[in-house]
Every structure is written in structure tokens, then in C-alpha cells.
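Handout, section B. The chain below has 462 residues.
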Amino acid sequence: MKYSIQLFLILLFAGQVAFAHPGGHYRQADLSSLHHWKIEKNGQPVIGNYMVSNSGFVIAEGINGQMWKLKISELATEDKKYVDSEVGRINEMNSKSNYNAVVEKSPIDKMQLLWFLSTLLCGIGLLLGAYKKWSADGYAYRKYAMALSSVVMLLISLEACKKSNVVPNVIGGDGTIPRTSTSFIDSAFTPYKPAISTSWDTAYFHVSGGGYPQHNMMIGITNWQQQVPIPQTYTGANSWSIPLQPVYATTPLSTRTNLMRGAVAIAVNGIPIFNALNNRGEDSYLIGELDQWGGHCGKGDDYHYHAAPMHLSGTSGLMPIAFALDGFAVYGTNEPDGSSMQTLDSCHGHIYNNGVYHYHGTATYPYVVGAMKGKVILDPTTTAPENQIIPQAFAHPVRPATSPLRGAAITAFTSPSANHYLLTYKIGTKYGYVEYSWNATNLYTYKLTDTAGVVSTQTYQR
């Protein structure tokens, strides 16, 4: 009887762990279905599917999370066509209405039901065997329970290892974190449509937008880089991507020493959220680089936040105000049930009463994410501390980066007409202006008036 109980406990444990597959998106069994590139790296054949491309490079993911960085200029014609087809596929997917996006159903439901019912039957058999332990009936009950246990363990193993074409555990998780519902994420972004649009596939939830929030910008900055916000094309293959299956990192990646380039989260109004520290390791908020809404423009004239966009709670209520690029939600000062925020861990989040990990935005450092609680994929072309997460969207500037203007404070930012903006700044008692606009052919004109009244005009074609 002792060994029967041990077998029952093994079955109970197997039902929990048999669903797990560590690694990346693809495993050895997927090798034949991956793209075989007509190029070698370090004497090895490159086998992996398209992941992201930018600035003349494409990154492919192979089995067990292996990453390949390839120069597009060195690719064979066949491989270039493959890259173009993948970009086209993603663009087409993002151009469709979010209501037509694929609604997935996880195959794990069938497995959990099989495990639960079978384990229940085995447990009943063992209990009846124990009740009649000295009788022939008791022996039969135990024998049948042990046989059923073996069959169920075999079925679970075969089903868990079988390739699913519905929804695999796309990020390589261990099955301990629930897959995030696309309807839940979409409901968080819905109040900010149609300025943004959403779509999803089996691996990621995608957010497209133009890089402009629905609130004003730039007012309140006292440490100005002389950048101004211009529209961005965060669409198609350059959309923001949120993993649908978060996976706990073995060691959370600290934002004190990492991720000082690119975004760490995407706000529900479609504006990216960067590290609280700038690329020099300074707290952007404390040194006056941010406006009244926690944002500013980077070298690409791209508007983004460095502090938590707490003002979004006024529209979002108790829904998330952002989603980190590891897949976990970011809430405001209250818990999802409306109660006061509980103590946060070193990552700036916790698990509360719904059993799901999430971050919180606060008015003090690190504001949004102290460390990435979930696994993320790092861009192999970058190094710490200025490394960045991929996939993510990238800004497209129209003019060279400018230098900080010492002593300048931005006092006003207005839009006199469509595609036309006027920024007013002040140094001491004198005012300066940046007036800029663009036409239908994306010709940008900048009229710069300094505090001495000197005017210069610059034009750039995008």
C-alpha cells in the first residue's frame, strides 16, 4: 500500500510538471519547420525563424532560444524574400481590425481535465484498496489504480511533448504563470482607441500608434535637450509587442545597470515607457528632464515616458496603466480590486490576491520597473548598460540629435493648426521659440528663434 500511495503522489506531481518545456519558442522537434538560411555564422548553418529587423540587420531565433544576428546585405535572394514576406505578414496582421484577430484557446485545458479526472479515479481506487486492504477486492482496486496511473502518466507525457499548432507555451515558460487573456489586455487599451490600434497572434499582443499622446507635452521641462515631438510610425512590423505568456526570470534584470536604451514598457495610450535612468545613468525626473506628464523627447524626437504615467488612472480606473515588455501588467497606486497598494518587491511589483504578478507605478524611483521580473530577450547588438529588449518598436528621426540648452525651461507647447506646433522656452527673462510643421510629402520645416531674436530655418525630408 505504501508504494501505491507513492505512485499516486508521483502522478499528482507529474500532472503539474508534465506541461513544462524550458527554452525559447522552438525546440529540437521544430528543427525541420524552421527557416534554413543560405548563410553560415562561425562555420555553423543558420536555422531559425524571423524575429525582428532594423537598421540593416535581421535577428532570427533558433531552437532553445538561440539568437542569430544577420546583415540583410549579406543575405541570399531567397532569404531576403523570406524576410520581406514575414514583414508583410506582420503588417497585414496589424492592418486588420482588432476584432478580427485570432482568439486563441490554450490546449492545456484538455490536459488539465485529463489529469484531474484520472487522478481522482486513481485516488478513489487507492482509498477503496486501503479500506479493504486484506481482501481480494482491495488488491484488485490497488492493481487497477496503479495500472490506470501508469496509463495516465504515459498519456500526459505524450500529449505534453506533442507539437501543438494551436497555442504552445510561446515564451518557454514553466507553466506556473497563467497565459494573459488577450481580451483583458485589449480592454486596457480600448479607452485610448482609435488613436491606437491592437492585434495579436499566438505569441504577442501588438500595439500600433503614432507616438503622440492625447494629453499635451513638454511643458515643465527645465533641463531640455532641444528635441521636439514628431509623429512616429509604430505600426506593422514596427509595432509594440507584449508577450502573452510571461515567464519568471531566473535572475531579474536590474534597470539600474541595464536597459538604458529603448523601452521597458508600453503605456495603455500607446506611448513607450523608458528606464527611469537616462543613458548617462541619471534619474530623468530628478534632474528636470521630464514634463508634467513624466515624458520628454529622445534623440529621435520621439516622445516617451521615463516616469510612471499615473495620470492615465483618471481614464483607466483600476485597469492597468501599462504593460511591461516581459508581459506583466503595471497598475497605478491601487491594487486591481481597488484596495491600497501593498508592499512592493525589489522589481517594483508583487503578487496580490489574484495570484498574478504585476508592477505598480509610483511617484518615487524606480517609478515603474526596478528589475524585469519576467524573462526578456536582449538585442544582441547592444551591451549593458545601454542594452535593450527585443522585439520593440523603433523611432525614426528626421534631423540630427541636438545638444542640451543650459538654463532653458519650456513654458508652452501649442498646435496652431494641423501638423504645426510651437514650443516656447525661457532663459532668465527672455523667450525663445521652436516652430515646426510638415506637409503631405513629409517635408519638415523648423523655424528657430533664440532668446536674442535671431531666426534660422531648417528643412528635412523624411
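Note. Residues 8-23, 96-111, 159-175 have pLDDT under 50 and may be disordered. Compare this with the example in section A.
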